[in-house]
From TrEMBL, chain B:
UniProt source species: Actinomadura soli
Keyword Cell wall biogenesis/degradation among UniProt keywords: no
GO molecular function annotation: 2 iron, 2 sulfur cluster binding; metal ion binding; oxidoreductase activity
Name recorded for this polypeptide: (2Fe-2S)-binding protein
Keywords, in A-Z order: 2Fe-2S, Iron, Iron-sulfur, Metal-binding, Oxidoreductase
Pfam families recorded: Fer2 (PF00111), Fer2_2 (PF01799)
TrEMBL record, chain C:
Record flagged with keyword Oxidoreductase: yes
All residue ranges annotated as the FAD-binding PCMH-type domain in the record: 1-177
Highest taxon of source: Bacteria
Comp. bias intervals (Basic and acidic residues): 237-252
Region annotation Disordered: where it falls in the sequence: 232-265
SUPFAM superfamilies: CO dehydrogenase flavoprotein C-terminal domain-like, FAD-binding/transporter-associated domain-like
Keywords attached to this entry: FAD, Flavoprotein, Oxidoreductase
The species this protein was found in: Actinomadura soli
Lineage: Bacteria, Bacillati, Actinomycetota, Actinomycetes, Streptosporangiales
Protein name: Xanthine dehydrogenase family protein subunit M
């Protein structure tokens, strides 16, 4: 494999950070030489298929798996009862309140099922088709119980219960208040109240989940398509009581996650238990339709919002009352997701009072959990939509209303009403740049013209001036929020005898490009060529310590850990170099990978020479151990706060309701940038997902609690043909919370774009009296909004094209619409 | 069981296959050609796209028996003598992949696109790739990569390049 | 997911194929391009006992000139149909609609006949066949018969063919000169099914509409011929007013479904708007 590098080729010291280095990961990925979990099938591997509940809620009366055992190739068949004593309960690491209701969550249901798709039995067979065929032979009697689907109804007195023993469908109520909201609302010249629904989304990483567990005596290696090998290892040990040091978790090539693989899945626990019981490698890979039902979903909140302002547009206070759908169980961080938004409803604005109340509600749906942005997109949507509503109410340009409220660049660091300290930012600069790239005035003129002409295709302009808190880390803060762990990250640097470098990171990439960006950091800090650095990750045996990848934390935490570890290497090497050069340490300078005596450039030792001398250890200073290897664990004092201004121009066909995105400009400030190519790619992908929430995606349940969007034919992921070309640019205001000045970028595009798009659509339709279109803004919903119908009727899903009626067991229906 | 004979990436295989065996599972499980992944059940995602007798197909929607007598090219069959194909190179140069799961299908679909249109516009690339979903890149760099490869393949730098 | 097991036959000729179908019984299915069938098999929404693969019968791929009509072999792929000079000359509406079907890879495998025999009201080609007064040529061991498009599409995913019958081709009358055509497909994403589609052919005589043919996709359990629109627009001047008022008849005789992407009410609205647009585009 020879991939020719463009751009920066030579490892010129000091030139790596900030350079658009092409990714080293690509070579194997473009050639199909990949290690997806499902690509691995050790000799003797058994294949697992799960039988899943076709009911939203039912009591399991009887399970008879004996007939499945007789099928050719079948090695074992089990029900949940067969594992009841050893499968434990899937973990929730974030008990957000002391009195949070936290039900048991058996990996395989034993006595009751609470969402369609919950596993109830499994078959283990020689091959996948044998396992799958035998599912038909498992006989289960269910006693159906009432589905609980609507959050408001679920909280009402006398509602049917998801978990009978809890006595309520309320998991928790979490409150944050600062300032005197009553005073802010009292006699406020402007009060705006709105209700927004953050629809349920299916994360849809392109690689379906897969897990392979290989037993070796009492030891187990579990390969999994996971974002969190380290957390998974600890949790598997906790759940199964197999000692942590007997479990090795490997995240090989992982095909995207977006939060969906930040989970401890029942199937992972069961693969481990099956491998232990059967003594053979066991593999399970989900199908897409299985995954849509069972991989945790995202969003699904109802937001009831109140904004109080002065006549001049200055915000007095903001109130957010949230209902958050937990689904049927609390998974790894389910209850904490909406809480991550609690600190973001104030956005980039100053105000006197703020109140946030969130109630977590159980329903008989797939559990929710992290999905790209996790709580922050919801909050940003709320405030950015409300800012546009305020602008419309006052007849002020939406940019101007923001200017009147945002934190000015000279006011940083700024303590917000939500209790965070924003370390840095320059909203003016990002906005100015965005307006210029967007040609804002020109588009406003076109909008006015179309309005005058009563053009059936109207133009709308949407603004989103966002910030977000990411680099999910500060352990003390996480502790204060009752999160079950810290948020540090670990890195170690090994200097080999030949002077080559191995970097070990606890961060676990699944598409982000760590192998490239981490090598850039190490190359610069150590003054070695980029090509001399190898980055190791994603295997608890190789990288024993880490907190993994999510919440835009890799660079701002893990990258900084690496930065510090490199500096420790240099300090160790300095002692050896000083000894070899017969100079005092303080007289040495280290540039471009070489120690030299200040003022005597010709005498020096490269890091490689020092490494070799250290390896030989023939002549080291007294008390110096023969190793330059170093590690560091970084735990920041604060989150990082990327921000930016996104502008969207949307054409809305008022006759059909179809929305066409005409132009999208994103100016992001993610602080110092290691690799602008990777940053731009993250922004592009984030935009696509945020736009998809605004326009296309929604997980829909029918009245019986069946998910009707089980396939990609029904859950609409946009293709290249459905998305516009983005104009992206950056401003660079370094973070002050870490020595590199970096901030996270992974979620920014998703967080910012959804309100920009919906604001644009609503802006187009304001002359028609429209002030909201619920998401996703389907053509029908736009059309109904134009007819002043706030609630679109929900037709019975499943007819007229699409595969929406695909049943859970996938075996008892004889016809449906088909792909063409 | 029907017996099939297929050429895959330059090698010939003869196998007895169950009629229900999908081409993609034949490639992955019988031939060990795991470079072609599976992303959905409904032929929407295109991750499994390969060339069959020179034209793109979704190998999850073709039975192995239907491929009998065909010449199949997967992403693993691209490039000559250990070099990379211009399309693969362009995906790298333009940062047209992140997690890489859709990439084999994207590359094969892109080659098919250029077979019919050697100089596609941005819109033509977007429409030509409507059957391939990517969740990471937002497609912008994929579009750039395909156009870059097209240019390079129209004006090959010295060497002949074919899929 | 993996299809349930089935028997498989690959007849070499139409005669063989109909014999196999006759012997196979009701639970056999014809495998054409498989692009509609394969997802249903994988999801186990279809569990046939046997598949009769007609993919190797070369004669079924032919597109030929038959005097005052074209005969399009059932196994001609969408890809082939879109590029075929005869189709482009005499039935450009078919090419226009076929271009909107799914995506290029699916169009390489998916067939003209397969799409029609599948009789999915959300499919793009049934409405086109209806608008063009196509005739379906069907064979079985009992002989050959012709089914006019008006009788072919019976109900949701149900055609007038018997289980032992094989669609061998479709005869499409040549409309003669002077026709403009347009297929207006309205869908949320490029890959998605039509929420509503309008197949439209219009013959102008100077500034007036002499004749129009209009049929609707996904406005009922089967494609719907919009007779009311055709009658209303006949003889009217070529103008937006004519098209708009004629399009008011678009919903006559429809039973639009409700699903994730559109309610019956919205579909009715769309049918009207899109019909007007399709007429205008065809009349250019």
């Amino acid at each position: 494999m020879t991939v020719q590098e463009g751009g920066v080729q030579e490892g010129r010291a000091g030139a790596e950070i900030g350079s658009p280095r092409k990714r080293s990961e690509d070579a194997r990925l473009i050639a199909g030489r990949t290690q997806w979990t499902d690509n691995m099938t050790p000799q003797g591997t058994l294949h697992v298929a799960f039988l899943r509940s076709p009911h939203a809620h039912a009591r399991i009366v009887r399970v008879d798996a004996s007939q499945a055992m007789g099928r050719p190739g079948v090695v074992a068949a089990f029900s949940g009862a067969d594992f009841a004593d050893e499968q434990g309960s899937l973990p929730c690491a974030w008990p957000v309140t002391d009195d949070m209701k936290h039900p048991d969550h058996p990996p395989m249901a034993v006595s009751e099922v609470r969402f369609v798709g919950e596993p109830v039995a499994c078959v283990v067979a020689r091959d996948k088709s044998a396992a799958f065929d035998a599912l038909d032979e498992i006989d289960i009697d269910y006693e159906p119980l009432p589905a609980v689907l609507n959050m408001d109804a679920a909280l009402a007195e006398g509602s049917d219960l998801v978990h009978d023993d809890l006595g309520t469908n309320k998991s928790y109520t979490w409150v944050f208040e600062n300032g005197d909201l009553d005073a802010a609302l009292r006699d406020a010249p402007v009060v705006i109240e709105r209700e927004y629904v953050q629809q349920r989304l299916i994360p849809t990483a392109m690689e379906p989940r897969s897990v392979l567990c290989v037993p070796d005596g009492d030891d187990f290696t579990l390969y999994s398509a996971t974002q969190i090998p380290h957390i998974l290892r600890l949790m598997l040990a906790t759940v199964t009581e197999i000692p942590e040091h007997r479990i090795r978790v490997v995240a090989p090539d992982v095909g995207g996650g977006f939060g969906s693989k930040l989970q401890v899945c029942g199937e992972e626990v069961l693969a481990l238990l099956l491998a232990r019981r059967l003594g053979r490698p066991v593999k399970w890979t989900e199908s897409r339709s299985e995954g849509n039902m069972t991989v945790h979903h995202g969003r699904d909140q109802i937001q009831r919002l109140t904004l109080a302002a002065e006549r001049d547009g200055r915000i007095r206070g903001f109130k957010a009352d949230i209902l958050a759908d937990m689904g049927a169980y609390l998974m790894l961080v389910t209850p904490g997701i909406p809480i991550l938004g609690a600190f973001m409803y104030n956005g980039i604005y100053k105000m006197d009072a703020y109140s946030f109340t969130c109630t977590g509600v159980f329903t008989t749906k797939t559990p929710t959990d992290a999905y790209r942005g996790a709580g922050r997109p919801e909050a940003t949507y709320a405030i950015e939509r409300m800012m546009d509503e305020l602008a419309a109410e006052l007849g002020v340009d939406p940019i101007e209303i923001r200017r009147r409220n945002w934190i000015a660049h000279e006011e940083f660091p700024y303590e917000t009403i939500a209790g965070l300290t924003y370390d840095s930012g320059n909203y003016e600069a990002a906005t100015d740049k965005a307006l210029e790239l967007f040609e804002y005035d020109k588009l406003r003129a076109e909008q006015a013209d179309r309005r005058d002409r009563r053009d059936p295709v109207q133009l709308g302009i949407g603004v989103s001036t966002f910030t977000e808190m990411c680099g999910i880390a500060p352990s003390r803060v996480l502790g204060s929020l009752s999160y079950g762990a810290g948020g540090w990250e670990h890195a170690s640097v090994r200097i080999l005898a030949s002077g080559k470098v191995e970097v070990v990171t606890g961060s676990s990439p699944h598409g982000q490009g760590h192998e490239t960006a981490w090598a850039q950091i190490a190359a610069d800090r150590l003054g070695v060529p980029f090509e001399d650095v190898r980055v190791l990750h994603g295997d608890t045996a190789i990288s024993p310590k880490g907190m993994d990848t999510y919440g835009s934390r890799s660079l701002a935490i893990g990258g900084v850990a690496l930065f510090s570890a490199c500096d420790k290497v240099v300090e160790k090497a300095r002692r050896v170099a000083a000894h070899l050069l017969e100079a005092a340490e303080q007289d040495l300078e280290f540039t471009a990978g070489r120690f030299s005596v200040r003022g005597v450039q010709e005498e020096g030792k490269t890091l490689q020479e020092v490494a070799l001398a250290t390896f030989a250890a023939h002549d080291l200073p007294d008390g110096v151990e023969p190793s330059l290897d170093s590690d560091a664990t970084f735990d920041p004092e604060n989150f990082s706060f990327p921000h930016g201004t996104h502008l969207c121009a949307a054409e809305v066909d008022t006759e059909t309701g179809m929305v066409h995105l005409r132009k999208y400009v994103a100016v992001d400030d993610v602080g110092k940038v290691i690799n602008p190519l990777i940053v731009e790619g993250q922004v592009h992908g984030g935009l696509a997902q945020g736009i998809a929430q605004a326009l296309y995606e929604e997980a829909v349940y029918d009245a019986d609690g069946n998910l009707t969007t089980t396939t990609m034919a029904d859950y609409l992921i946009p293709s290249a043909a459905d998305l516009p070309t983005f104009t992206t640019d950056r401003t660079e205001t370094p973070a002050t919370s870490n020595p590199m000045g970096v901030k996270g970028v992974g979620e920014a595009g998703t967080i910012a774009s959804t309100p920009a798009v919906v604001n644009a659509i609503v802006d187009a339709l304001r002359p028609y009296g429209v002030n909201d279109v619920p998401m996703p803004c389907t053509p029908e919903r736009v059309w109904r909004a134009l007819r002043s119908e706030t609630k679109p009727d929900t037709a019975e899903p499943g007819a007229g094209g699409g595969l929406g009626s695909a049943s859970a067991s996938g075996s008892d229906s004889d016809s449906a619409g088909g792909a063409q | 069981m029907p017996r099939i004979r297929v050429e895959v990436d330059g090698a010939t295989y003869e196998d007895d296959v169950e009629p229900r065996l999908l081409l993609v599972h034949y490639l992955r499980e019988r031939l060990g050609k795991v470079g072609t992944p599976v992303g959905c059940d409904t032929s929407n995602c295109g991750a499994c796209t390969v060339l069959m007798d020179g034209m793109s197909v979704k190998s999850c929607s073709v039975l192995a028996v239907q491929a009998d007598g065909s010449d199949v090219t997967t992403v693993e069959g691209l490039g000559i003598d250990g070099t990379t194909h211009p399309m693969q190179r362009a995906f790298h140069e333009e940062h047209a992949l992140q997690c890489g799961y859709c990439t084999p299908g994207m590359i094969m679909a892109s080659l098919d696109l250029l077979r019919e249109n050697a100089d596609p516009s941005e819109t033509e690339v977007r429409e030509g790739l409507e059957g391939n979903l990517c969740r990471c890149t937002g497609y912008q760099n994929i579009v750039k990569a395909v156009r870059r490869a097209a240019k390079e393949m129209r004006e090959p730098a010295g060497q002949e390049v074919t899929p | 997911m993996i299809p349930a097991a089935f028997d498989y036959a690959r007849p070499a000729s139409v005669d063989d194929a109909v014999r196999v179908l006759a012997d196979a019984g009701e639970d056999a299915k014809v495998l054409a391009g498989g692009q509609s069938l394969m997802p249903l098999l994988r999801l186990r929404l279809a569990i046939p006992d046997a598949l009769v693969d007609v993919g190797r019968i070369g004669a079924l791929r032919e597109i030929r000139d038959d005097g005052d009509a074209l005969v399009i072999g059932a196994m001609a792929t969408h890809h082939q149909v879109i590029r075929d000079p005869l189709v482009r000359e005499h039935a450009p509406l078919i090419a226009a609609a076929a271009e909107t079907v799914a995506d290029p890879a699916v169009r390489h495998r998916g067939t003209f006949g397969g799409s029609l025999a599948h009789a999915d009201p959300a499919g793009d080609l049934p409405a086109v066949a209806l608008a063009l007064d196509a005739v379906f040529l069907v064979r079985s061991v009992r002989g050959e018969r012709e089914i006019p498009a008006t009788e072919f599409f019976v109900d949701w995913m149900t055609s007038a063919m018997e289980p032992d019958e094989l669609l061998v081709g479709v005869r499409v009358p040549k409309p003669g000169p002077g026709w403009g055509v347009h297929y207006e497909k309205f869908h949320r994403t490029a890959q998605a099914w039509a929420i509503v589609g309008v197949a439209c052919a219009v013959r102008r005589n100077g500034g007036a509409i002499e004749e129009a043919r209009v049929a609707l996709t996904n406005m009922g359990p089967a494609p719907v011929r919009a007779d009311g629109v055709e009658n209303a627009v006949r003889g009217r001047p070529v103008s937006e007013d004519s098209f708009r008022s004629a399009a008011e008849h678009a919903t006559e005789g429809t039973e639009p479904p409700g699903d994730l992407h559109g309610s019956p009410e919205y579909r009715s609205h769309l049918a009207t708007v899109l019909t007007s647009r399709a007429l205008a585009a065809a009349a250019v």
